[in-house]
Design goal:
388 residues, alpha/beta, Aspartate Aminotransferase, domain 1, Aspartate Aminotransferase, domain 2, seven-stranded mixed β-sheet, globular
Length: 388
C-alpha cells in the first residue's frame, strides 16, 4: 500500500474513546477502545496540509461558501456515487444527527410518526423524542440469510400516517449495503404515500468486499421530500471538525429547512471544516480506495479469528462501514454483562442493547484501527468468553 494505516497516538488528546472511559466501563481506564465511530489511524496527509495552510494564513475569521466548495462536493458525488447534483441543493451543516433532528422539527407535524428500522444507530431514537414526535419501529427482519427490510411493515406504517422515514444507508450497526432492488422497493413505498425520506449516508464511501453503495438520491420520484445526509467525517477521520452536507433537491423542502437555519444563524459550519471537505473531495479517492482495502482486510481478519477461536460468535455479513455487529447470544449474557467481561480483559466495545429492543447479547465493534490493535482487542474478547 502507498499509504500507511499505522496507529496515531490519541491518548492524552481529550479523545472521547481513549481518555474518557470511566463512565462507560465502571470506572475502568486504559482500555483498548473499539467503540465510538472514528479511526485510530491518521487521516490523509493533504487534508492536514490544507488545514495547516489555512492556519498559516494567520486569521480564522468568518467564512462563507463559494463555488469552489460546491464544486468539490459535486465532484465527489459524481465521481464516487454517480450522482449529478446542483450547487443549490447543498446545505452545509455541523453534524448529521442535529441535522436530522432539525428536519423532523421543521418538516413534520407535532406528534408525527417517524419510521425507524431497528437495530439502528441509537441517536435516531433520541432525536425523534427530542423533536416531540413518536417512533414507528419497523424492525429489520433477521434470519439465517442476514438482515433485510420489512417492506410490509414500512408500507403499513406509511399507510397509517407516518410522515417521515429516517433511513440508515449503509446500515449502522448491521453492516448492510442495500441493493438497488431493495432501495427501489423502499422508494416506491415512500413515494406512493408521500412521506419524507431522510437518508443518513454518512458511511456511503465505506463499502467492503466490492459492495456498491447506491444513494437514495438516485430516485428522482423522492426529490420533493428527500434529504440525503453526507459527510467526509467517517471516510477521512475528521469527525471533530463537525462539518457535513445535506443534499436537498426539492426546492420547497430546502427552503423550509434553510429558513429555519437562517433564522437561528446556523447556516455555515466552521472554517477549518470547510477546508477539510474541499481537500478530501479533491483527489481523496486514491486514499479511500486503499482505506477500503485495509478495512476489508480487518473485517476478514476478524471473521477468520472468530471462526478459529470463537465459533459461537456470529458476525453479520460486513458489507459496509467499519462497525462489525457481533451476535454473542449463545453465551447467555446480556450486552452489558458481555461489555463488562470484555472490559475486564482490557477492551472497550459498544452494547448491542443500545441499538434496539431484542438485541441484548449483541456487541458492536469498531475495526478502523491498525491490525495489531485489532488482534489485541480480539484476544481480549477471546479471554473473556473462554471464561464462560
Amino acid at each position: 500500500m502507498a499509504f500507511s494505516f499505522e496507529k496515531a497516538e490519541r491518548k492524552g488528546t481529550a479523545c472521547i474513546k481513549w481518555d474518557f472511559q470511566e463512565m462507560d466501563y465502571k470506572g475502568r481506564s486504559g482500555l483498548l477502545p473499539f467503540s465510538i465511530a472514528d479511526a485510530d489511524y491518521r487521516t490523509w496527509q493533504p487534508i492536514l496540509d490544507a488545514l495547516k495552510a489555512r492556519i498559516d494564513n494567520g486569521v480564522i475569521g468568518y467564512t462563507d461558501l463559494n463555488e469552489e466548495y460546491f464544486s468539490k462536493v459535486r465532484r465527489w458525488c459524481h465521481l464516487r456515487h454517480d450522482w449529478d447534483i446542483e450547487s443549490s441543493w447543498i446545505v452545509p451543516i455541523g453534524g448529521i444527527v442535529p441535522g436530522i433532528c432539525t428536519a423532523i422539527e421543521v418538516l413534520t407535524s407535532p406528534d408525527a410518526g417517524i419510521i425507524v428500522m431497528p437495530p439502528v444507530y441509537d441517536p435516531f431514537y433520541s432525536v425523534v423524542e427530542a423533536a416531540g414526535r413518536h417512533e414507528v419501529r419497523c424492525d429489520l427482519i433477521h434470519d439465517e440469510n442476514g438482515y433485510r427490510i420489512d417492506f410490509d411493515a414500512v408500507e403499513e406504517a406509511a399507510k397509517a400516517g407516518a410522515e417521515m422515514l429516517v433511513f440508515c444507508s449503509p446500515h449502522n450497526p448491521v453492516c448492510r449495503v442495500w441493493t438497488e432492488e431493495e432501495l427501489t422497493r423502499l422508494a416506491d413505498i415512500c413515494a406512493k404515500y408521500g412521506i419524507y425520506v431522510v437518508s443518513d449516508e454518512i458511511h456511503w464511501d465505506l463499502t467492503l468486499y466490492g459492495n456498491k453503495h447506491i444513494t437514495m438520491g438516485k430516485f428522482e420520484k423522492l426529490y420533493d421530500k428527500l434529504i440525503v445526509c453526507i459527510s467526509c467525517s467517517k471516510t477521512f477521520n475528521v469527525a471533530g471538525l463537525e462539518t457535513s452536507n445535506l443534499i436537498i433537491p426539492g426546492e420547497d423542502t430546502r427552503s423550509k429547512y434553510q429558513s429555519h437555519l437562517y433564522s437561528r444563524y446556523e447556516f455555515v459550519p466552521n472554517t477549518l471544516g470547510l477546508e477539510a471537505v474541499k481537500a478530501a473531495y479533491d483527489g481523496g479517492e486514491v486514499w479511500v480506495d486503499e482505506e477500503l482495502a485495509f478495512l476489508t482486510g480487518n473485517a476478514e481478519f476478524t471473521k477468520n479469528y472468530l471462526k478459529e477461536y470463537l465459533p459461537k460468535v456470529k458476525m453479520a455479513d460486513p458489507q459496509g462501514t467499519y462497525l462489525l455487529w457481533l451476535d454473542m447470544t449463545a453465551y447467555g449474557k446480556t450486552s452489558d454483562e458481555l461489555i463488562d467481561l470484555i472490559a475486564e480483559e482490557g477492551a472497550g466495545m459498544n452494547s448491542g442493547a443500545h441499538y434496539g429492543e431484542g438485541y441484548d447479547g449483541f456487541v458492536r465493534m469498531n475495526v478502523a484501527c491498525p491490525r495489531e490493535q485489532l488482534k489485541a482487542g480480539l484476544d481480549c474478547v477471546r479471554r473473556a468468553l473462554e471464561k464462560l
